Amino acid sequence: MSASLKVSNSSKSQVSEFILLGLPGIHSWQHWLSLPLALLYLSAIGANILILFTICQDLSLQQPMYLFLGILSVVDMGLATTIMPKILAIFWFDAKAISLPECFAQIYAIHCFVGMESGIFLCMAFDRYVAICHPLRYPSIVTNSLILKATLFMVLRNGLFVIPVPVLAAQRNYCSRNEIEHCLCSNLGVTSLACDDRRPNSICQLVLAWLGMGSDLSLIILSYTLILRSVLRLNSAEAASKALSTCSSHLILILFFYTVVIVISVTHLAEVKATLIPVLLNVLHNIIPPSLNPIVYALRTRELRAGFQKVLRLGLQKK
Q1: Residue range 260-278: average pLDDT?
Q2: Is the keyword Transmembrane assigned to this protein (predicted)?
């Protein structure tokens, strides 16, 4: 009798939705941040569409490095679109409520796209390693078939790999609190509201992060160590400079991406109380890379700049 009453009370008290309060400490004026965030989102979508269109139109850009960049653009747009419409709805329309299934779906999508971005960075590092360390074998190693297989592997790896994260989050018992000091559904932020033990979620996220992005980062570091060793053996300073310049854009993006991931992970695992800086950093980590990637590559890659100019001239001629 008492057991059945306990189950009944638990089911009655189970929350049906979460409330995303927004940015901690600045709820009263956070809507003013909607304009720069909306501009970042629109620039991310516009710039990545431009990159995709340019690569499709310019045959000289249909090379492995740019094909990987095109795949990265698709992932970036998916990541930004996973969070930004809801964030803008919170700031503009005070639409703070989010259903449990929608919240768990967002957790899955964020982890999936972030994992895929990490995987694409690894593919791009491997591409640069073969191009610089084994230039004569490059055309036979990095083929369209390899690019397709690597992309499918990254999609399947991350699509299946992160399933335990939202599944474990959905199995927690949310019986009282439902207000999240955040603009989006982060796994550890959501499970901190659970009435039962959330340690399995924390352990699962830590293990998956080390196995997924940790292995990606280790292989990226190995690739660039071998690249640097190969470049230092070159007799010509000009050749060494040219070889390193092809990697500079990639290194800038990798440094930003993994630095922020490590900071956010350490903050979450240390169970630091939600404050403005970590939460804002988490939001920006999902919107700045999609905006930053096209700009960095456009500024530092002559062939891509030339491709942009061709596309823009073509557009003006049609008008």
Answers
A1: 72
A2: yes
